[in-house]
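Each field is listed here:
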Amino acid sequence: MPLKQLIKAGTGWLCLNTPAGQRLLRGTGTILMLHRVVADDAQAALPHRNALCIGKPAFANLLRWLKRHFDCVPLAELLDPSGPANGPPRLALTFDDGWRDNALHAFPLLQEHGLPASIFLSTDFIGSPQRFWWEAIGETLWGSFGEEAREQLGERLRQHLSLPEELRTAGAEQRRSQALEQFLQQLKGLSAATLQELADGCPSPPEPHALDWQQVQAMEASGLIRFGPHGASHAILTGLDDDSLEADLRRSHEAIGTHCQAPLPVYCYPNGDHDARVCAALRRHGYSQALGTRPGLHFSQQAASLSLPRIGVSHRIACQPSLLGWRLLQGARQSGAPAPAAQSNDLQECGNEVE
């Protein structure tokens, strides 16, 4: 592990295992943001997959670690303002998008450990062959479907962006993967329609990217999993005009209400992007709580918020969960929530212990 990560892991361990760190986290809630759990760690470790994918062995390791350090509760319980103001740190697991591997790989491990989770669905994809653009484009450019498919997609992409040189040469795997990860981030600047058109022209995977409604209902029936909306089309909401925004929110709200017995009254923004116009539209649809991607902790007895913080979990963090302790310390520092003076002193003390 690089020296920088070793320092962060050590800092995280101290935050979770020293009296100062334990006092700091009392009365807090952590909402973790995950996406995919894939079959093995090697698939997840490459840079272009690391942020969104966790290998199944690493996920099992993460769950064992979470049970030792947190009171793992359903999201609705963590967000209940009547919860304990100074109890042990609580944590809720959330998954974005509605990937099929949530049922195949994540759910069995959640059942084994008895841990609840919430999954936020991009409802147009559920039960559909429609593909998530970043997976379809990313894996085609990586060469998962052969050189011919990669070249054809590259030609279509050149109408919009120049491909990095590292993707056109047979260089080192890590460098190619890093270049692909950076390129996929650049693609987010294209319109949702353009990205979906590019994705639809990629080769079909062996199985659909997304869950189907039967899988959703089976997981909900277990009592461990609840579902909420993550947009219909997964378009970035701030980029939609008023009519498209209303249609997307309505479509996802109605789909969740139709197919789920107890849908969560919480929205989850695609890519975390929102503004005052989007928040006003959410309120019209009856939402008073929504999840973003800004890092931070949730403090008990906070008012409802349309910009709830979450801590993202990558494969690297799942393999070395002490890194999550570092993220929690940073989240506590970045959280704008009011904290008692004693808690503020603990934060300073914990920071002093690790510096």
